[in-house]
Amino acid sequence: MPMSVWALGINHNTAPLDLRGRFAFAVEQMGPALHGLRQTFSQHPEAAIISTCNRTEVYCASDRIDIAHTLDWLAQAGGVSSDALRQYTYTLQNDTAARHAFRVASGLDSMVLGEAQILGQMKDAVRAAEAAGSLGTTLNQLFQRSFSVAKQVRSSTEIGAHSISMAAAAVRLASQLFEDIGKIRILFVGAGEMIELASTHFAARNPKQIVIANRTMERGETLASRFGGSVMKLADIPDRLHEFDAVISCTASTLPIIGLGAVERALKKRRHRPMFMVDLAVPRDIEPEVKALSDAYLYTVDDLASVVQTGQAQRQAAVSQAEAIIDEGVRNFMHWLQQRDPHYGVVSLIREVQDQTEQWRELELAKARKRIAKGDDVEAVLEALSRGITQKMLHGAMTELRQPDLATQVHASDAVRRFYLRSNRNTPKA
Q1: Which of 1, 100, 111 is nearest to 59 (CA)?
Q2: How far is CA 59 from CA 34, 53, 420, in A?
Q3: CB–CB of 158/319 below 8 Å?
Q4: Cα separation, 52 vs 55, whole angstroms
């Protein structure tokens, strides 16, 4: 049977933040998750999982599409019922799955149009699938082609121009609350790619103090040293939270790091001076109840959506160019996929033609050997051998040319001229 590709996912357009948080897979969870997913199928499909703050998507490839089974597995992984999850998911097959993967890689499906971070996250997902042994030829082709399309989109369009990142959006919001960022103390919780980006943006505004709180002190020190900052342990946050005017958090923790009680105590010590907080993590790093506190200004990735939309209009002209590149990429991928169809693909057809001609050759050769063994004239045997092979090769074409239907005759004539009369157009020199 032919191979098919399907994808099932949730993202910032279809599911609320708290639900997305239930389906976030940490790096160390990818291997076991992929193994578990494949084991639930009777025929283990190729599989890959993309998990970011904005999306969780499961990609599979097999000779039989089973979206319902994929949904059941994902629902169980997130601890919800399939019925409850279904209304938030999107499902894609073959060309639509390919188009979606290409758009995601190119930054066209992101909250920040044209953002580049997703490409690295997709590459991480592919590496995780390779390490887990779940990435076969079909999905590898899909993702490698998506990376190639993304590269072409970014190099030949201005899709990333005027882009405002989550980090830049956080700086804008902070500027609205504080007159001078140069006078505030900032705590960054985590030391991953997102915090690195956020700290870089804030450091450009020369804040009074930068502190990095991270599970691994060495990694925190490496990041802090770039900005003349200091480090602290995650365990020290509740006791020192009141020292900071702004808190930016993004970790891979499955449970909140900063609770309501800790923020309440911090605000009391601050004599209710405002505290600006940005939670970029999925699942949340800061308990959502904090948002109800009068002196705490808490923003999540979804809250930043309106801010990052700035500049969208300038980039819309590039979107149509990007979509055209993606269209071509989808056509090429589907052509490749169809060629691998064991029943209708070109690769399969080539094999069938080769097998058939080999059977004819062996049949005529066996006849010739029998005649030679009987003592027949060798020249006559060779003449019969060549005639027999030629007749077998031409029989199908001659039958088509003799069809009474005129359209069939015309089509057959064109094909015969291309296949058998090439020497008339390009006769080799003696």
Answers
A1: 100
A2: 10, 17, 45
A3: no
A4: 5
Rounded (10°) CA dihedral 208, 209, 210, 216: 180
Tell me which architecture the domain covering 166-308 has in CATH: 3-Layer(aba) Sandwich (3.40)
Question: Mean pLDDT, consecutive 10-residue segments, the chain of 430 residues?
Answer: 90 94 93 95 94 95 94 96 96 97 95 87 96 96 97 89 80 93 97 93 95 95 95 96 97 94 97 95 96 96 81 73 95 89 62 81 89 90 89 83 80 80 54
What string of DSSP letters covers 335-382?
Answer: HHHHHT-TTTSHHHHHHHHHHHHHHHHHHHHHHHHHHHHTT--HHHHH
* Catalytic residue flag (residue 250): no
Helix and strand numbers (H, E) in the chain are 18, 10
User: Edge to edge, what strands does the sheet with 4-11 contain?
Assistant: 46-51, 55-62, 4-11, 90-93
Measuring CA to CA, which residue among 185, 207, 206 is closest to residue 273? 185
Residue for token pair 């308990």: 287
Asked whether 226 and 191 are in contact (CB, 8 A), the reply is: no
Out of 7, 8, 30, 53, pick the active-site residue. Answer: 53
**4-162+312-339 CATH fold:** Beta Polymerase; domain 2 (3.30.460)
Q: Which H or E element spans position 401?
A: helix 378-401
Asked whether the beta carbons of 297 and 276 are under 8 A apart, the reply is yes
Per-residue model confidence (pLDDT) at position 428: 46
Pairing of strands 230-232, 185-189: unpaired
- pLDDT, tens digit, for every residue of 200-258? 999 999 999 999 999 999 999 999 999 999 999 999 999 999 999 999 999 999 999 99
Q: How far apart are CA 347 and CA 17, in angstroms?
A: 46
